[in-house]
Amino acid sequence: MWIPTENEKYGVVLASFRGTVQHGLPLEIGDTVQLLEKCEGWYRGFVLKNPNAKGIFPCSYIYLKNAHIKNKGQFETVIPMEDSVITEMTSTLRDWGAMWKRLYVVKSAQHTHKNEGDLFHRLWHVMNEILDLRRQVLVGHLTNDRMRDVKHHITARLDWGNEQLCLDLVPRREFSMVDPDEISVTELFKLMEHRHRKKETPVPASTHHLFVHMKSLMSFSLGEELEVFFHIYDSRENRPLSERFFVRLNKNGVPKSPEKTERQCTLFVDLGSSDLRKDVYIVVHIIRIGRMGAGEKKNLCSVQYRRPFGCAVVSIADLLTADSKDDHLLKVYACNTESEWHQIHESIIRKISSRYNLAGSNTGLAVSLQLLHGDIEQLRREYMVLFTRGVSITKKLGFSDIIMPGDMRNDLYITLEKGEFEKGGKSVARNVEITVYVLDIDGQVMKSYVAAGSGEPGGDEYHSFVLYHNNSPRWAEQIKLPIPVDMFRGSHVRFEFRHCSTKDKGEKKLFGYSFVPLMQEDGRTLPDGTHELIIHKCEENANLQDSARYLKLPFSKANLPGNNQAVKGVKESFWITSFLCSTKLTQNGDMLDLLKWRAHPERINDSLSKLKEIDGSEIVKFLQDTLDTLFGILDESSQRYGLKVFDCLVHIINLLQDSKFQHFKPVMDTYIESHFAGALSYRDLIKVLKWYVDRIIDAEHQDHIQQVLKASEYIFKYIVQSRRLFALATGGQNEEEFRCCVHELFMSIRFFLSQENKGTSPVTQTQCPCVCCNSQAVFLRTFPAVYGELLKIFTVKEVAGFVKETLGSLPATAHAECPLEAVKLQCMAKTVESQLYVNPDSRCTLLPVVLRLLQAHMQEQRDLVMCAHILTSMLSLIRKDDSVTTEPAVSEEVDLIVESLLGLLLQTILEITNRPQPAGTNMRLQFQDVTGEFVACLLALLRQMTDKHYQQLLQAFTSKDDLRDFLLQIFTVFRILIRPEMFPKDWTVMRLVTNNVIITTVLYLSDALRKNFLNEKFDYKVWDSYFYLSVIFINQPCLQLESFSPSKRKKILEKYGDMRVMMGCEIFSMWQNLGEHKLNFIPAMIGPFLEVTLVPQPDLRNVMIPIFHDMMDWEQRRSGNFKQVEAKLIDKLDSLMSEGKGDETYRELFNSIIPLFGPYPSLLKKIERETWRESGISLIATVTRLMERLLDYRDCMKLGEVDGKKIGCTVSLLNFYKTELNKEEMYIRYIHKLYDLHLKAQNYTEASYTLLLYDELLEWSERPLREFLNYPMQSEWQRKEYLHLTIVQNFDRGKCWENGIILCRELADQYDSYYDYRNLSKMRMMEASLYDKIMDQQRLEPEFFRVGFYGKKFPFFLRNKEFVCRGHDYERLEAFQQRMLNEFPHAIAMQHVNQPDQTIYQAEAQYLQIYAVSPIPESQDVLQRDGVPDNIKSFYKVNHIWRFRYDRPFHKGTKDKENEFKSLWVERTTLTLVQSLPGISRWFEVDKRELVEVSPLENAIEVIENKNLQLRTLITQCQSRQMQNINPLTMCLNGVIDAAVNGGLARYQEAFFVKDYVMNHPEDGEKIGRLRELMFEQAHILEYGLAVHEKFVPQDMKPLHKKLVDQFHVMKSSLGIQEFPAYVRASPVHFNGSPRNSCRNSVPNILSLDGARVVARRSPLTYPSVNRYSSSSLSSQASNEVSNITGQSESSDEVFNMQPSPSTSSLSSNHSASPNVTSSAPSSARGSPQLQDKHKHSRENSCLSPRERPVSAIFPTPLDPAQKASPNQIGDTILPRSDPNLSAPDKVRPTFSSWSLDSVKEVNNTQFSDTVGKFLSPPVPPRPPYSGSSAKSIRSQSPGPMSRSPQKSSMPPFTPSPTECQSAGLVSNSPVLSGSYSSGISSLSRCSVSEASGTEATAGDHPAHLAATMPNSVSSGSDELIRRENKTPPPYSVYERTNPRRPVPLPHSLSIPPNADPPALPPKPHQIRTSSMKLDQASDSRRADGVPHVPRPRPLPRKVSQL
Description:
By secondary structure, the chain is α+β, with helices and mostly antiparallel strands.
């Protein structure tokens, strides 16, 4: 049976448990679990990190831990009873773990982000370190001190990690986290601020220490032992700052005792901040020990001398920047002259290089130096290893900046300065060595008291170094004598002088000595300074052991009596400098006199007077003795010396206020507590103090009195302690007398304090008015320190009474310049912080005084920092959890504070936050601090307030206006508190407390709002402020729990719940109370409430959504509609969503029928019940669609670069605002956003079209326009002019000059109408420049791609739609496909072009289907007109395009393996767009899709038609000498003739001329005739072409020409042509006017594989493509057969693209094939010989990009010699336009002749320009009339690509626009051209079908009656007339312009596809066909319905690399 656990509540998993049993819970080792129930060895519970999953697990797997249980029962919380630091570590490490893993992902994904990588590794190290420290804490073996250090280290690491990971700052007290509920808000603020400041600004250390480690001396010339001395030297004052550190080195230059680190490492301690300067140096002196001369040979002499070796210096400033120990190699310098040795370091520092040189080129001193900061105890903790391993301490000379009472030191430093010696009978100077001894009072040498420096132990004697032959040696050697204090008296130092002989014996001869006693007779020590000592002569054998004999002699020349001239005259002298650093001995006689006052009572007066002149360090040395002396004198003769003793006491007390001696205050405190014995002193002290206070007002000089007042704290301490001692000794006698004295003293003080600063006596009237004020200020500063003393002998209430009366006596107002006001506050602050105020009894007495003062200051906004400080201290003492006994008192206090200060607090916060921020950084910080403190005070006060307090507060307002002002004020303050900048960003704890207080207060105040400001008392402003606050509250970032980690979210919810939902419910409740007043908030509150619903919190949304229904309902009642609601809703949605708010589920909230969560039905469901449901539902639908687009827009804008997705999304939104919402301002905003995107992407043409949308909204009027976006205030005319100029500039940059010209004309008309000829001239010049650019500059023609976006994962504006996109310059299919896949990285490229099925549409994925399509131009007028240069035509071929075509070949019925053409059909898809390209976007959605099928026979007709047209074009160009090179004609002739000879046309004959076919297809009789006619025509053209070729062929190509003529005859015979039929011979081929050269297409379609893809080697021609086709692949045999048909030859000079067989093309290949060929003439199985050998593998070729594909229809054009391209320009650089399926040189200019029919009536347009008209062709017989093809119209469906096998390319190339069909000639497309044109078409995939609009153009293109009545030829006048009528529409305008000066045609950019029949094009005098092909009628159904007709796609090209 399962029993709930009692004590077993919490445990840790010891081993992983899989949970394979029924109801088992899987556990991982280390998991923490909460146990709920127990049963026979099993527990039931859950893992704390996933409390929702409960299950069972074995007890043996769990280690139980003690835990504290909160809320026992169902919702109990378990808190482990462990150290809070451990708990924090555990939870923090868990949070870090998850973030650390994410850092790894970021680090891996972004290799360049060094910071993330560094943080990843650093965090890893810190986490390991924390884990290790956690183990140490858990084991529990640490000492208390070590535990404290470890915890300190842990918290520092946790804070570092939290800061690095941008987590919250954790408030702590003594390493433990603080629960904000358990302390007051003010305390919490102080903790947060303290931690924040600690984090920001580390306090600079005032004490510094230098660590030195001597490593070695490197020199090649050693061999003697060395002594190295380090000391710190001040070059500014030329004196050492420290004693010396001494290291002995052996002969190898390394320390002698390497095992004793203290002998080689030292710490120079107690350096002040002032010592870290550039001119402070570390100086190193090196002394060698050996022979006198460094280079002397070894002799028998064993005597060693100390001799100078070298010196090194390094500036201490060089170490300031180093963070760690740095190794330095110091250069060692030697002295040039030994006598300069004493100042060699100064010479090096001053760089006097003449005095020193390098000791050796390789000599260097290796030392390690490091500067450490902080006091020595701190260093011991931080650098424990340093101290445990051993380091010697090198002290500073003298005391440190701060003297500590416990410091014991007694060091005498003696420096051997110099000597003056006589020669002593020698011929040369002496080598003098000094030996130093210290002797005690008995004359015995004191052992180990002579130290050369720290590092080495002291010795019995010291030997100076020897200077060679120098009678005036200067040593400057410092020694240290650490003699104990008790041995100082009677001891002396003796200096013995010896001459060191350099002879063999090397003996040292004593020749004199000096001595100096260390203490004088009167007890004073040897004074500091330089002493000239007498040298007493003696011999070597002189007995100096008996010191008593020479101590009677004089020792210093300064001490000689005046009559001892003999000794004074002696030349020999010795100078030393002494310096005593002692805490026990003094050199001051006055000090000694005072301490020995009993010996000389007569000197007491003098000694007391001189005390003030004694140095403070001397006084503090003998502090206790001095105080005993003073109180001794006071006890014995208080009447006589009382005042003087009091003054001395004041002097000493004030001395301890100095920062240098402040650490001696505890010494005085200890003295008062333990050693002070003056039981009677209190009377004298009170009496003197009162005497001084009484005289303050009349005193002329206040300085001394102020000193007395400053010392009052310690004076009271002495008074109180003295009284306590007296009471103890006498049993409390004289108590009443004492109290009386104290009361009198306080009366004097109160009287003095109450004086206002206006003197009453004549004296004070002349004084500054602030004299008395200064004294009052001095007293107030020390007064709070007295409270504690008074409490020792008076009760709390009595002391509180004293304080209240004293502070209450202060004057209310003070002089403006008087410092008293600030000091009053400081006094109050100390009072509030004192123990007296903490006591509740005294607090109720003192609180009114404090509040009164605070009130006065806060009202005047003075000293706010101090006011905030006082308030903080006051409120920190008040807590709600105070014990029951004090609760009434606390409540009373809160009442008092609320009554006095709440309003002021609010007012102060408002004023502070509205002030401009001060400029200085420090001021700004202080400013922020005071704001934070006041805010914390306000929060603390509000948190203490209960129902009762709120009731009292609200009842206290006498009028509604006061209450209203208060509510407005507090709501405004709350809004300020919610601001993000109120607290630092990581203060989440503080923010949550703030919000908790706010929501609690708002709940109380909302009642007041309801009761007082509703119905007839309704006040809009208060309610508005309330709602505004609530909205801001809900939206603040720190409450958006969704963005927090799960653990943080859980903690917040447990502690506070979701405060947003609480506030949301309150909003709803308050809204319901409004009643009819709701109308006041419609539509103003729609935006704010909408913002609330955007918070992704389901409960909150459900509460808020019904409010919108309510708003709609009330608005409907008021005005009969809710347009206002709708408008506001839409405006706000846009701005909010663009800020990043809202999500996918939010859309459902409006739209969903089902209730989402909670009791509220969805908005839609509520609306459906209303009478106005239709308009409501419409609004919901609109809002939902808008949200879809806004969400898409927001998601797209998050991406980095500008891409199609962003532009498409913006277009979608822009159109939505225009068409569905009619929101003009939003529409214009998005126009400009789109414009900016286009400019960024360098889409200048699209940018122009976009800006044109705004331009069209404006008129040429003088209406003033407001400032908007970046436009200034200006007239509408000016803005429109500016827009026109900008658009023209962008059209110019986008090479869309034709559009720019139209705008230039419009502007010119405006300037003309205003007679602004200056600008008119400029405009005309601009227009002219655009014409020049059209004629002179090359333009790349873009390629077009059809893209399908399938699947639910695409944005709404793309989802399951298809688009046609205009490619970038030079962008091929593969590049485009890659770009799209980069924009949609999760998309899958579909490997076929079939229409997707529903599974793809509904898939939760992204599928992309991409292939190329060809444009079908609309502008037939220009393209059909003769003599129009290609530069002009090329624009109309690819601009203003509505329709695009794509062809897919397939076999219908049984496939004939012998001749595949019999069954080869073409499926032609025509796509119609919603807008023409180019436009405001690079892509537009497909509006309509039409499919037709083209029969094999029609295919064959198109192929031969196109080839004939190509031949005519080339012949014409050759005749008119437009061709610089005859090679294209040669290749074309060779291709056609060779293919025909090898059986090319025979395939068509086999397929369509056989009896079976004619019998089975009687309806095709007319078409078969047409095919035969075309074959004969081709033969006739070839004959004429050969004649022209012969005329122009160069000599070296004559053999080829002869071969062609021979083959032509063979071809004629193969066709059975002996002579041409009469109708062919009847008339010549008039290229400019024959009625017989009518093509069946109004736009000639040339089938070419690689058609005219010329890679120019000599003189390339550029052939603009007209029509392109796609095809499927057939067998390789078919490929070869087809290759013989279309008459293209191979040429070594002209290399054409190959078109791969579509059977191998697929999107998966690198180059996706583009099946674009429809039909072909049959060829023999042999095919072209060149092709067989080289290209039988052509079907394996990968797909080419559009530029590499063949062109189906080519317009040759005369090539100006200047435009001849060099071979290196072969790419796309020389192209007049960019063809989707054509590479650079595939573009050919059209000739001036036109061989096409009108697209409507199939009229033969043969009219030529005069230039070409004079060239005549050989006669061609007239053709019989021919009816149209029988192609069947299959279906017309909505957009979607046609099915296609996966092997076939999903990227069919673009079909050309119908405008291209106006070419006058044809160049067939060939896959291979290596020397001549290939034999036609290499495969069916490369067959060429006419795809110009002629095949689709039906009578719909022109009115039917016009088609019937059109004559065969029309005069040029009517031609001109029609041409004018059918003027090319301008491509940019949305509206038809109305211009007073000239009509502006309908613009084209955003116009809908032309539905009306356009006016008839001028027919050309060709024979009019009597019938049209059915295909034409079918394919041009678009025209008939008023929908644009769609061109067919074209064949796939081969790859150039396979030629």
